[in-house]
């Protein structure tokens, strides 16, 4: 088991930002380029929402959700998520679970229960993580912190196109309203709200492609490595 001083030598790149900003895709590509591990912290809140739903636990029942979050048997394997051995990769990505995740994530009981698990993803040679509080709470000592965002209209448009390209039904106005309410909940909750910390680099992707965003993060990482 690595101790804290060993852990702090393992570099972390923390990419935080609002829903559908593209941070997950950017984080995964950056991790691939650097040969680092990748961890999607939002998946944990989605899993809590999913498991609560299955067990008829309300998304506002902070105590029950906290207990549930302590006892999850999660396995991440390549790009797949398993809970108690069952593959739930797509199930947790539904619009319903997106909303549920945002609701269960407001409870400190849930966030505290997931702390150690999140820290355990820090493994050599390095980690790229994305979420809401990666740079502000979980990996405060990250070597690089990025706040990746885009206007809510652009994010809604991207999500709309994604769904249409998959042959699914999509309603732009509904997507926009859902994103607005998740933004508000994630940014205004008292426990670990989404904020741009003073030491985080702002990356506005409304007018830039995923490839450009990846390049910017890699350049910033290179620069941060050169600092004495
Ligand atoms: O990144 P995502 O859309 O999969 O996250 C789903 C929800 O989980 C998001 O609306 C808020 C919550 N979340 C959080 O509170 N803290 C994180 N580090 C990651 C996600």
What does this 3D model show about the protein?
The protein has a single domain, classed as P-loop containing nucleotide triphosphate hydrolases (Rossmann fold). 49% of the residues lie in helices and 15% in strands. It contains eleven helices and eight strands. The strands form two sheets. The chain has a five-stranded parallel beta sheet with strand order 2-6-1-7-8. Strand 3 (74-77) and strand 4 (80-83) form a beta hairpin. Helix 2 packs across helix 11 (210-226) and helix 9 crosses helix 10 (172-188). The chain is globular and about 50 Å long. The structure holds 2'-deoxycytidine-5'-monophosphate. 2'-deoxycytidine-5'-monophosphate binds at residues 19, 41-42, 45-46, 98, 101-102, 105, 131-134, 182, 186.
> Spatial order of the strands in the main sheet?
2-6-1-7-8
Q: Which strand-content bin applies to the residues?
A: 5-15%
Characterize the biggest β-sheet: 5 strands, parallel
CATH topology: Rossmann fold
**Tally of contiguous helical segments:** 11
Distance between the termini: 29 Å
The portion of residues assigned to helices is: 40-55%
H/E series? HEHEHHEEEHHHEHEHHEH
Total strand segments = 8
Mean pLDDT: 94
Ligand set: 2'-deoxycytidine-5'-monophosphate
Provide the low-confidence segments as ranges: 1-5
CATH superfamily grouping: P-loop containing nucleotide triphosphate hydrolases
* Gross geometry: globular
* Rg on CA atoms, Å: 17 Å
Going by helix content, strand content and strand pairing, the class is alpha/beta
């Amino acid at each position: 088991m690595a101790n804290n001083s060993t852990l702090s030598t393992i570099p972390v790149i923390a990419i935080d930002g609002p829903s559908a900003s593209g941070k997950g895709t950017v984080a995964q590509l950056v991790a691939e380029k650097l040969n680092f591990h990748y961890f999607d912290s939002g998946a944990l809140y989605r899993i809590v929402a999913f498991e609560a739903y299955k067990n008829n636990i309300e998304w506002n029942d902070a105590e029950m959700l906290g207990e549930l979050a302590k006892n999850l048997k999660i396995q991440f394997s390549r790009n797949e998520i398993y809970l108690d051995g069952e593959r739930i990769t797509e199930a947790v990505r539904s619009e319903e679970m997106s909303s549920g995740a945002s609701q269960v994530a407001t409870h400190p009981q849930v966030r505290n229960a997931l702390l150690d698990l999140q820290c355990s993803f820090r493994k050599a040679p390095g980690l790229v993580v994305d979420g809401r509080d990666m740079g502000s709470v979980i990996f405060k000592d990250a070597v690089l912190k990025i706040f990746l965002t885009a206007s809510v209209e652009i994010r809604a448009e991207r999500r709309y196109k994604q769904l249409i390209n998959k042959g699914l039904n999509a309603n732009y106005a509904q997507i926009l309203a859902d994103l607005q309410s998740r933004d508000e909940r994630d940014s205004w909750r008292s426990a670990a709200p989404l904020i741009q910390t003073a030491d985080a680099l702002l990356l506005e992707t409304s007018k830039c492609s995923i490839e450009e965003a990846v390049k910017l993060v890699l350049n910033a990482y290179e620069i941060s490595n050169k600092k004495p």
